[in-house]
Amino acid sequence: MGSHGPSGRLAGKNAIITGAAGGIGLETTILFAREGARVLMSDISQPALDRGLAKVLEIVPWCIKPATILCDVTKESEVAAMVDLVDTWGGVDVFFNNAGIMHAHDADAIETSEKVWDLTMAINVKGVWYGSKHAVLSMRRHGKKNGSVINTASVVALVGSATPQLAYTASKGAVLALTRELAIVHAREGFRFNALCPAPLNTPLLQDWLGGDEAKRHRREVHFPTGRFGEAIEQAQAVLFLASDESSFVNGTDFVVDGGMTRCYITPE
Ligand code: NAD
């Protein structure tokens, strides 16, 4: 892993990552820290944040030490408090709305309960709205001219699936639509909004759910031209690009990182 130190691709930028203790969130924290950003890691679990921070410091001990904060993204006051902290650093430059759930009891139109629907929408959609809103407010307060917000959707927002998780799919479709609109509304202020669309990955979110069920796993794996699920680090690399000024003319995209899955009809033997 190369060391870029204070002259890294995100040098001088303050970044907030929600769900930072999880698969994509932690890999992104490591890359952001490696590339010189000052990172605020947030999640709903303090022990998970502590473990995550220890891993970051093990891999990039010379980085600006990330701060950690508990934040449930469904609570606007907690999102605002998180942004308040970064305001003391000079305001938000990058906001990665990454926290999301795929509920074990999310199913089709008949079987999905209202409780699962509401919880999924609260975290995956309302949380992204709150993060986007408070990112904009902070960027404005600090006169930022090139902020970047990355909102995590999913390939299920782009292609249908016969293994339904209706609430999750609907929530990710909402993330695409709201991100596109935010991108247009705030473009003249210099604030970019892009939606990340990961394919199924080797992270606890999916792998815990699949467990040892080989048939369930194969049902998904067979659709990859690459023949494999993605890795969290492969998403993090895309987020780093979207966060950095290298992507200064990339705005309002559905940024698909899927090994070609959504572009494929029949996979290689
Ligand atoms: P993960 O479960 O490893 O991490 C998610 C993190 O979000 C966890 O640390 C969790 O504690 C946190 N979180 C959950 N509820 C929260 C809340 N209310 N407030 C704040 N934090 C909360 O998942 P991951 O695979 O790293 O997924 C990250 C994002 O990527 C999610 O939005 C997910 O929907 C999306 N995604 C994942 C996959 C995949 O296959 N893993 C595919 C497409 C999209």
TrEMBL record:
InterPro entries: NAD(P)-bd_dom_sf, Sc_DH/Rdtase_CS, SDR_fam. Belongs to the short-chain dehydrogenases/reductases (SDR) family. Pfam families: adh_short_C2. Keywords: NADP, Oxidoreductase. This is Glucose 1-dehydrogenase. SUPFAM superfamilies: NAD(P)-binding Rossmann-fold domains. The keyword NADP applies. It comes from Coniosporium apollinis. The keyword Nucleotide-binding does not apply.
